[in-house]
From TrEMBL:
Pathway: Carbohydrate degradation; glycolysis; pyruvate from D-glyceraldehyde 3-phosphate: step 3/5
Main location: cytoplasm
NCBIfam families: pgm_bpd_ind (TIGR01307)
Enzyme Commission (EC) number: 5.4.2.12
Official protein name in the record: phosphoglycerate mutase (2,3-diphosphoglycerate-independent)
Signal peptide boundaries: none
Catalytic activity annotation: (2R)-2-phosphoglycerate = (2R)-3-phosphoglycerate
CDD domains linked: iPGM
Family indicated by similarity: Belongs to the BPG-independent phosphoglycerate mutase family.
């Protein structure tokens, strides 16, 4: 930061006092959606959150928690806990996903990273396998990123490369797969001229092979596994372009639903099964349709289908697909380097900080909040407490999770007078929402609401301020919907459960006896998102936010 005159010292807010205890509560997976029987937050008894929503109209509003508001490429990208907490803590929007990969490839930084150096150890004697969606759709992957990776890996010692393609036709036009395969074949041919044995080894349509999500249908992943790893598929071809053209001629077949195929040599032997000593990279940057394959490639202990062989490979994802599961454990592109987070500023300016959650979200309220950084900024000023999550059961079995314990720790921290900010994450809505168990999710939402009440009661006692918000949606919509918004049914007429996050906005509420008179949400930041929360909280601590932070959501009206 050096000579540019940078200072950690924040300016005092002209109208807001310092020294109030602030409770910063993040409800995980708690969005705002229409009231119906699939909205577990609506169905659940949530008197505390209801009272915030129906209280003073200028103390409650919605903020964006998905897509571009949290640094993801498009507004079709649902939010997630990692990017959500990054935005909440950083106060600015950092590139996530595709944009990160672009810059890592452009600068060549990707090749200096731990992940690439790990897979590189297989180049001398093994094969490098690249698996992912072959298109320029830009939702899950992009052809130009694959091309750069092929070039970069071959320049850095990969002598034998096999690409396992998944055809698209969903984010791009149906039929465009032929052109993409021709382009890739061309690239492989050029590499072969340079002495690199590069070829397409297998393929299949994204909706039928490999790219299932939310553990909907493991058969999809198995079809891919059989072709990619075992080198077995119902259709065998010598030429990939011919494979796609011929398979598209089968009735009711399109790019999305192309059956699996393997490429074979003159003797009919598969050209690229995955074997011991090989390296594998899944090159999609979007997580949701790579997570299941990542589990199959990485987990020793796996029972979702019979893998037949579990090769000893070096596997890395393009990115880490799941921050909670730390999956995959190796990845080519690291999360963004976020500097000057609100947490670091506040600690530097004398704000004593307490943060707490249970295991599944403890990293979110500390590591991700603090800009993907471990540990304390100043151990004299901070205390982080992790409550062990239940293990060995799915969260719908104990939907209350550790909400009470988290709330008790927060309450004690508030009442102790030792802290100026007490920050918690209540994971119930998200973790139970992911199980797809609607009844359990209702119980979970009630438990989270009761935890909020315990924290707000403590704030009331010490004359403090509360900020209650969320990181993304989940529990507010538990059913898959068609374009019109009507619930989708399966072939037996049962509703199709939605276990994922959503695109919904999330609430933010402020209040408490310590809130200065005249503080209210501004009307001139209608598109406010999670990144606007940091400046808001800094103001409530009595400081102005740094100039490059997203604008605060509050103003002080002259009474």
């Amino acid at each position: 930061m050096g000579s540019s005159g940078f200072s950690w010292k924040l300016k005092d807010h002209p109208k807001l006092p310092k020294g109030k205890t602030i409770a910063m509560v993040v409800l995980d997976g708690w969005g705002e959606a229409k009231a119906n029987q699939y909205n577990c937050i609506h169905v659940a008894e949530t008197p505390t959150m209801d009272s915030l929503k129906n209280g003073a109209p200028d103390k409650w509003r919605l903020v964006k928690a998905h897509g571009k508001a949290v640094g993801l490429p498009t507004d079709d990208d649902m939010g997630n806990s990692e990017v959500g907490h990054n935005a909440l803590g950083a106060g600015r929007i950092y590139a996530q996903g595709a944009k990160l990969v672009d810059s890592a490839l452009e600068t060549g930084k990707i090749y200096d990273g731990e992940g690439f150096n790990y897979i590189k150890e297989s180049f001398e004697t093994g094969t490098l396998h690249l698996i992912g969606l072959l298109s320029d759709g830009g939702v899950h992957s992009r052809l130009d990123q694959l091309q750069l990776l092929l070039k970069g890996a071959s320049e850095r010692g990969a002598k034998r490369i096999r690409v396992h393609v998944l055809t698209d036709g969903r984010d791009v036009l149906d039929g465009s797969s032929i052109g993409f395969v021709e382009t890739l074949e061309n690239d492989c041919a050029k590499l072969r001229e340079k002495g690199v044995d590069c070829q397409i080894a297998s393929g299949g349509g994204r909706m039928y092979v490999t790219m299932d999500r939310y553990e909907n249908d493991w058969e999809v992943v198995k079809r891919g596994w059989d072709a990619q790893v075992l080198g077995e598929a119902p259709h065998k071809f010598k030429c990939p372009v011919e494979a796609v053209k011929k398979l598209r001629e089968i009735p009711n077949t399109n790019d999305q639903y192309l059956p699996p195929f393997v490429i074979v040599d003159e003797s009919g032997k598969a050209v690229g099964p995955i074997v011991d000593g090989d390296a594998v990279v899944t090159f999609n940057f979007r997580a949701d349709r790579m997570t299941m394959l990542a589990k199959a490639l990485e987990y020793e202990d796996f029972d979702k289908f019979d893998r037949v062989r579990f090769p000893k490979i070096r596997y890395a994802g393009m990115l880490q697909y799941d921050g909670e599961l730390k999956l995959p454990s190796r990845y080519l592109v690291s999360p963004p380097e976020i500097e000057r987070t609100s947490g670091e500023y506040l600690v530097y300016n004398g704000v004593r900080t307490f943060a707490c959650s249970e295991t599944v979200k403890f990293g979110h309220v500390t590591f991700f909040w603090n800009g993907n950084r471990s540990g304390y900024f100043n151990p004299q000023m901070e205390e982080y407490v992790e409550i062990p999550s239940d293990s060995g059961i799915t969260f719908n079995v104990q939907p209350k999770m550790k909400a009470v314990e988290i709330a008790e720790k927060a309450r004690d921290a508030i009442l102790s007078g030792k802290f100026d900010q007490v920050r918690v994450n209540l994971p119930n809505g998200d973790m139970v929402g992911h199980t797809g168990d609607i009844e359990a999710t209702v119980v979970a939402c009630k438990a989270a609401d009761e935890a909020v009440k315990m924290i707000l009661d403590a704030i009331e006692q010490v004359g403090g301020i509360y900020v209650v918000t969320a990181d993304h949606g989940n529990a507010e919509d538990m059913v898959k919907r068609n374009k019109k918004g009507d619930p989708l049914l399966d072939k037996n007429g049962k509703i199709q459960i939605l276990t994922s996050h959503t695109l919904e906005p999330v609430p933010i509420a402020i209040g408490g006896p310590g809130l200065a008179p005249g503080v209210r949400f501004r009307k001139d930041v209608p598109d406010g998102g999670l990144a606007n929360v940091a400046a808001t909280v800094m103001n409530l601590h009595g400081f102005e936010a740094p100039a490059d932070y997203e604008p605060t959501l509050i103003e002080v009206a002259d009474n």
